[in-house]
Amino acid sequence: MRFLAVAVAAIAVMVIGPVAAQTWPERNVRLIVPYPAGGNVDSAARIVADKLQQRLGQAFIVENKSGAGGLIAGEAFAKSAKDGYTLFIGANGPVLFAPEINKRDAYVWKRDFLPITTISMTPLVLEVHPSVQAKTLKEFLDLARREPGKLTMASPGAGTTNHLLSELAQSELGLQWVTVHYRGNAPATNDLIGGQVQFAFDQVSVALPFVKSGAVRVLAVTSGHRLASMPDVPTFAELGYKDFDAQTFTGLFAPAGTPDAIVTKLHDTMAEILKDPAVVAKFDKLGAEAVTMSPAEFTAYLTREDAKWIPIVRKANIRAD
Predict the structure, then answer these.
(1) Tens digit of pLDDT for each residue in 55-111?
(2) Which of 39, 170, 46 is nearest to 93 (CA)?
(3) pLDDT of residue 17
(4) 204: Cα within 13 Å, side-chain hemisphere
(5) Are 99 and 93 in contact (CB under 8 A)?
(6) What kind and span of H or E run contains 126?
(7) Sign of torsion, CA 286 287 293 296?
(8) CA dihedral for 12, 258, 264, 25, sign (positive or negative)
(9) Are 88 and 74 in contact (CB under 8 A)?
């Protein structure tokens, strides 16, 4: 009789699991964001949270959990229940780089994160203070070669895509400059505008207002095509630097082991949301492009990014501040 009871209980769990997945969500869902409120990733999370609530009938609550370059949020997420009620909206740094630069085996995205879809892609620009005597990428690179170690570059933090692009440029082009790390985009941008540092690799969404005001000058963009917001700015690729394709992604993740039915429902819902013209327009204002990938496509993309950037992290011996 005891064996029968255990067997019945096991069958019940097997049946209830898929049923629960099909009826998900039946209560509020947490969206963990590894940055403070107000940044690009937080803005993306809030755009899709509102739409998810409208389409799925439950509140999607953004929970900002910043610190250690996203490691704190990523670790908390990796330990969460695999029931679809805790999700993660992250970017390159927290997903790919934070465990490496902090030298902590807190999580491994390939093991602990289940990619659902990209949300947006944001290219970077090379921007300089107006005092810098360079109006083209060639002039800037010539200046850097003539005066090795003299130029100063503003980084929003060690291990950010901005920082890694800077390390890639120095390594690939045989250049040298001084990298000044800040705690976020705001102080880095403030010092660039003030002339305390001379240039930066920065997200279009951050740079765009200052480009329009003339506070900085943009020399090149890392996207595969020219941007509608900066039609006169050439891409690195068209100038002959094809390895400088670097973008900041935002993406949606569930804990590994989350039921397939929930993942499929989330992906299909997000695909509809990211085609909504109103949502596309909101990302355009952020200087980003709304982009949907399937879980398989997103996983393949992350695998390529991992293979490209982690060797740079190790070669440059990048560590958390």
Answers:
(1) 999 999 999 998 888 899 999 999 999 999 999 999 999 999 999 999 888 999 999
(2) 39
(3) 53
(4) 29
(5) no
(6) strand 113-128
(7) negative
(8) positive
(9) yes
Closest by CA position to 87, among listed 115, 51, 111? 115
CA distances from 137 to 100, 144, 156, 166 (A): 31, 11, 22, 14
Q: At what angle do helices 260-273 and 40-56 cross, to 10 degrees?
A: 110
SS3 of 114-125: EEEEEEEEEEEE
Tokens of 69: 């370059």
pLDDT at 184: 82
What would the 3-class secondary structure string for 242-262 be? HHHCCEEEEEEEEECCCCHHH
Task: State how far the alpha carbon of 85 is from the alpha carbons of 12, 27, 52, 130, in Å.
Answer: 21, 8, 13, 48
C-alpha closest to that of 268 among 145, 116, 147: 116
Determine the residue type at 130: P
d(CA 213, CA 206): 13
Distance in angstroms (rounded) separating the CA atoms of residues 216 and 199:
9
- Which residues of the chain are under the pLDDT cut of 50? 6, 8-10, 12-13, 15-16
Q: Are 211 and 130 in contact (CB under 8 A)?
A: no
Query: Per residue in 4-29, pLDDT tens?
Result: 554 544 454 454 456 667 899 999 99
Report pLDDT for 21.
75
Which residues, at least 6 apart from 32, have a Cβ–Cβ distance to it below 8 Å?
63, 65, 73, 76, 77, 80, 86, 87, 88, 89
- In degrees, rounded to 5, the angle at the alpha carbon of residue 49 between the alpha carbons of residues 89 and 265 is 80
| pLDDT score at 36 | 85
Q: What are phi and psi of 250, to 5 degrees?
A: -115, 140
Q: Could you tell me if 69 and 93 are in contact, meaning their C-beta atoms sit under 8 angstroms apart?
A: yes
Asked whether 308 and 286 are in contact (CB, 8 A), the reply is no
